[in-house]
From TrEMBL:
<dbReference type="InterPro" id="IPR010149">
    <property type="entry name" value="CRISPR-assoc_prot_Csm2_III-A"/>
</dbReference>
<comment type="function">
    <text>This subunit may be involved in monitoring complementarity of crRNA and target RNA.</text>
</comment>
<comment type="similarity">
    <text>Belongs to the CRISPR-associated Csm2 family.</text>
</comment>
<keyword id="KW-0051">Antiviral defense</keyword>
<keyword id="KW-0694">RNA-binding</keyword>
<dbReference type="Pfam" id="PF03750">
    <property type="entry name" value="Csm2_III-A"/>
</dbReference>
<protein>
    <recommendedName>
        <fullName>CRISPR system Cms protein Csm2</fullName>
    </recommendedName>
</protein>
């Protein structure tokens, strides 16, 4: 009797969110195709997480912070943008906390891990690659039907 009740209750549970697991190597040769894989995996869930939806505005806001760092790198050394890089990490964490779909993007694309690696390496080229990775994520999001 207990088994029948638990089976009946399980029928009415919401379907589990399919959380993609991707191996992101973030090399110069791979980051563009990895960005595409991230977006395609998020598209499987229609860019949604529960009621939260990933929008172009949300992802472009994060890109604009990234772009300002890229612009600063033209005139400044890496050490001079470290504080902005830390602020960028905080913004990714904050936006992830506000919206589950943004969190799915950040986790699937391994953005926080990559940013930690950029800060640890203190390498200008790696930071530039991260900025281009963000641009690729936005471009593929729009290409594969991301909504405003």
């Amino acid at each position: 009797m207990i088994n029948n009740q638990s089976r009946n209750n399980n029928r009415y549970q919401k379907p589990a969110f399919k959380k993609p697991q991707l191996n992101i190597s973030f090399t110069e040769e791979s980051y563009v195709s990895e960005a595409e894989k991230v977006i395609l995996s998020l598209k499987e869930n229609n860019f949604k997480h529960g009621r939260d939806v990933l929008t172009t505005s949300q992802i472009r806001n994060l890109l604009s912070l990234t772009s300002s760092i890229l612009n600063d790198l033209v005139f400044k050394e890496f050490e001079q943008v470290m504080d902005k890089l830390s602020y960028l990490r905080i913004q990714f964490v904050y936006q992830s906390g506000r919206n589950g779909a943004v969190k799915d993007l950040v986790e699937t694309a391994q953005i926080l891990k990559i940013l930690e690696n950029v800060q640890a390496k203190k390498d200008k080229e790696t930071l530039i690659r991260f900025c281009h990775y963000m641009e690729a994520l936005v471009a593929y999001f729009k290409y594969y039907g991301g909504k405003d």
